[in-house]
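Q: Could you write out the predicted structure for this multi-component system? I'm mainly interested in how the pieces pack against one another.
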Amino acid sequence: MTAAASPSGTGGAAASVREQRARHIRRQRAVERAAIALLKVCMVLIVAPVGLVVGYCLWKGWRALSWSFLTRPPVNGMREGGISTPLIGTFYLAIGTMLLCLPLGVLAGIYLHEFARPGPLLRLIRLALTNLAGVPSVVYGLFGLAVFVTTLKFDTSLAAGCCTLALLALPVVITATEEALRQVPQDFRAASLALGATRWQTVRLIVLPNALPGILTGAVLALSRVAGETAPIMFVAAAYYLPFVPKSVFSPVMALPYHLYVLATQVPRVPAHVTWGTALVLVGLVLVLNAGAIVVRQRLLSRRRW
Amino acid sequence: MVALSDATMRAVVICAGSLAILFVILIFVFLFAEATPILKEHSLADMFFGREWRPTSTPERFGLLPLVVGSLMLTVAASILAVPLGLAGAIYIAELASPRAQAVLKPFVELLAAVPSVVYGFLGLTLLAPLVRQIFHLPTGLTGFTASIILAYMALPTILSLCDDAIRAVPQSIRLGSLALGTTKWQTIRYAVLPAARPGIVPAVMLGIGRVIGETMTVLMVAGMAGTVPKSLFEPMRTMTGTIAAEMGEAARGSTHFHALFLVGALLFVITFIINAIADIAIRRRQPR
């Protein structure tokens, strides 16, 4: 806020002030250059290791990748064969989870954005949601163990895993739904209500169709999160080794992330390319889902007519 | 087509919305219900000040200090690395990068957040741990130091992305006003933009820290899981999350060990609750303006 007081002195005094100022500016420019250089170094420190690791991962893992690696179950103490059973297990877990949490999450999102009025209930729900989103995933595992496995007697099973993961994904779906609803212009609702539609008719016929792409993008992101979770399913759903795909929702499943954990830490002398291949498939799966969601979102945003 | 009445649907969505509250209460109740039986055999003071976690030795020891100190050390170490780096990255992306670089860097960082934690753990185990062992001449590479580096990189996307949002939310007029006074770009960032963005940066950091405390697989695979209180960062250590994940599979249902692990879970739940509440209050305080 210091106004530039112009020194109106004569001769030497003015020159020295000018010199001082020039020196000050030079110093500030140097500080600026140093600071920006430091920021650039930090950016490199963030990006470079990741680039290196991704490259290394591809280099180590691509040899393992083949059609038979994806379609054959692990054999010979999981040291050979493929990853079909964990891959299918993860697929089942992810689908089951979404079937449970998508309807609930979307309805809850609709409530929060379209129906809720500010008040203690809304405040409480918001607090609960931030909390659910912050609970460590392993604590969800404990909860799943206490409720679904023990109390409801699902045992270690696909069903228990889906229920546990659905809880974990719920805040993600709710937040995404709310965000998607927020993108729909308020005018649409006003126009619909002015035509005599009820609130729910407005939501179902006007708001939801326009918000659907955004909701689906959020659902895909939640799906990718679920597909990668290990800690919550370790003692709720996942099997160390199964020679077959589960036939019922009440039998345990193999899951890709848990399979990677087992290969990396529990089984001695696993050939490196098997472990790296498994890691590569897992990362690939999750990143493709995410990148797909991001691309779809971008395209939808650019195609939007309002 | 069956047209559901407005009132019915209103009731349905209110129920769905309120489920979040129900779930939090259920988690709380079940964790504590499974945790409290241990108090019959071990006093709370004994556990909180116990310096050894040896659940399978006789007599069994359930000192929580190694777990709590381990979690704390890892969180602090990871934050020291992740917070400055994340903030610097956010400043770079939001204030200095060209629009083209922005368009690449932001999605790239967000993709990083999507990589499953077990993969980070695997990378730490196979790539970083041998490196750490050689460089520092340690008996094992599975130390708190190794884990905190990986954890820092896992928290980075959260911190960076949210800080970036906070910096972008600063009105352009603040930047222009500062620059018009003849400041350099850096002075503007340092003295005008960052102070204005601070209310958004605080919750970003809190949420990043929350992620580190709750992280399980990386710690389980990389931190070494020692049973005693660590004296330095370069020792193997265990955390609350890692302990639950490692031992719940083997603990017999209803045993003391089982209840002890639930007690750890309950403690973890309370800690993350507090962190989230602080972040939430910080966010709320920002909103009225």
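A: Regarding packing and overall arrangement: Chain A touches chain B through 90 residues (CB under 8 Å).
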